[in-house]
Amino acid sequence: MAYLTWVTTFVGEILLLGGGVLPIFYILHSAVPKLSRATPPRRQPGLTIVLTLAFCGSALLFISGILTLLVGTPLSWTLFNDTDLSQRIYPFAVAYTIQLTPLSAFFTLLISFFGMAIALYSSRYLHYEEHRLHIAALFNLFLLTGVLFVSA
């Protein structure tokens, strides 16, 4: 059960990170002037991908919070645990411990529940915004920082 909780948390955070970083590449790619068309298209297909990543990442974090509450014992894991190896690969690596206690699992449940609801219903609201891809990317990063804050 602890391994399943770890996997769902890790994959959920990676999906939120991907949803925050992926639009940067799309925006940079669309900023290059195209010779074939003078005006950029109105529809941005990246918005659906980013909001889907936000929904899936929030759903996995919601499952992770439920599993942590069911287990009842704190779960923790450390990134960059081997300092000798991490100093050779990443010179500025810092050991970062993620710990899911029942209290942090409760707040993860709250953040991920509202994250799923916002990701589900915001596609219609963002349809009329000019910078909708930027907003969706920042929403993913906001969810990620919220979950990392309560689990640190």
Describe the structure in your own words.
α1 (2-31) packs antiparallel against α2. The protein has a two-stranded antiparallel ribbon. It is globular. The two termini are 21 Å apart. The protein contains five helices and two strands; from the N terminus they run ααβαβαα. It has helices at 2-31, 46-71, 83-89, 102-126, 132-151, and strands spanning 75-79, 96-100. By secondary structure, the protein is mainly alpha-helical.
Helical coverage, percent range = over 70%
Order of helices and strands: HHEHEHH
Strand composition percent: 5-15%
Strand order of the main beta sheet, please?
1-2
Through-space gap between termini = 21 Å
Major beta sheet, specifics? 2 strands, antiparallel
Count of helical stretches: 5
Key words describing this protein structure:
single chain; 152 residues; mainly alpha; two-stranded antiparallel sheet; 2 strands
Fold blueprint:
Elements: H1 2-31, H2 46-71, E1 75-79, H3 83-89, E2 96-100, H4 102-126, H5 132-151
Antiparallel strand pairs: 1-2
Helix pairs in contact: 1-2, 1-5, 2-4, 2-5, 4-5
Short description:
The chain has helices spanning 2-31, 46-71, 83-89, 102-126, 132-151, and strands at 75-79, 96-100.
